[in-house]
Amino acid sequence: MKILGLCGSLRSGSLNAAVLRAAAELTLPPRELTVDPGLDRLPFFDADVERSALPGAAAELRAAVGAADGLLIVTPEYAHGTSGVLKNALEWLVGGSEIAGKPVALASASPAITGGDRARAWLAETLTVMSARVIPRDLRIPQATLKITDGRVTDEPTRKALSGLLDDLAHAVAEAREGNGTLAS
Ligand SMILES: Cc1cc2nc3c(=O)[nH]c(=O)nc-3n(C[C@H](O)[C@H](O)[C@H](O)COP(=O)(O)O)c2cc1C
């Protein structure tokens, strides 16, 4: 089972990137979580460019999404939405069919007590209109600076909740495979 992890933050000390690293640590065979190398390699979305010659980075992102059984998207909340860098990546995916029907789990870490809940709501709507299957469970990590130390998720309840999110994502992938008539593993 292949999960692709996307991070909406480019910051070197990103709390959300730390959550994605923890998710990779918690993912054991036969599950596999590959973290995308960084959405900053994508140019700004331009429909003219998409039509004339799809940029290599956009083609690679579409292929990576297509090859994944499910996605884990971890993003900061910026001005009550998601980050521009993640929104840009989603715009490059709109014109492909790779994300359609794919189970997606959402997580957000924030120093605020709201834990990025508005970014999650915003993303869920966008992904649903893109025909992705956003799983009902999500993970919001409020006061994340107390739970993530030196780039590591140190808070045990948060690690447990992240494991639960990954389990639910795996179940959604298995269900999607059964629905498509392929064997679940
Ligand atoms: C431009 C900007 C807008 C922000 N807006 C919000 C917000 O609406 N809600 C929130 O909880 N945090 C907000 N924050 C704080 C971020 O949650 C915080 O900087 C977080 O650490 C960013 O994620 P990262 O650590 O993964 O880079 C904002 C930060 C910036 C720089």
Topology:
Elements: E1 2-7, H1 15-26, E2 32-35, H2 47-52, H3 56-67, E3 70-74, H4 84-94, E4 103-109, H5 117-129, E5 133-134, E6 139-141, E7 148-149, E8 152-153, H6 156-179
Parallel strand pairs: 1-2, 1-3, 3-4, 4-5, 4-6
Antiparallel strand pairs: 7-8
Helix pairs in contact: 1-6
Bound molecules: flavin mononucleotide (FMN).
Flavin mononucleotide (FMN) binds next to helix 1.
Q: How many β-strands, per DSSP?
A: 8
In CATH, the architecture is 3-Layer(aba) Sandwich
Query: What is the CATH third-level topology name?
Result: Rossmann fold
Bound heterogens, unique:
flavin mononucleotide
CATH homologous superfamily descriptor:
Flavodoxin domain
Number of domains: 1
Gyration radius, rounded: 16 Å
Sheet/helix structural class: alpha/beta
What does this structure look like?
With 185 residues, the chain is an alpha/beta fold. The chain has one domain (2-179): Flavodoxin domain (Rossmann fold, 3-Layer(aba) Sandwich), CATH 3.40.50. It contains 6 helices and 8 strands; from the N terminus they run βαβααβαβαββββα. It has helices spanning 15-26, 47-52, 56-67, 84-94, 117-129, 156-179, and strands spanning 2-7, 32-35, 70-74, 103-109, 133-134, 139-141, 148-149, 152-153. The strands form 2 sheets. Strands 1, 2, 3, 4, 5 and 6 form a 6-stranded parallel sheet that branches. It has a two-stranded antiparallel ribbon with strand order 7-8. Strand 3 (70-74), helix 4 and strand 4 form a beta-alpha-beta unit. The model has no long low-confidence stretch (mean pLDDT 96). Bound molecules: flavin mononucleotide. Flavin mononucleotide binds next to helix 1.
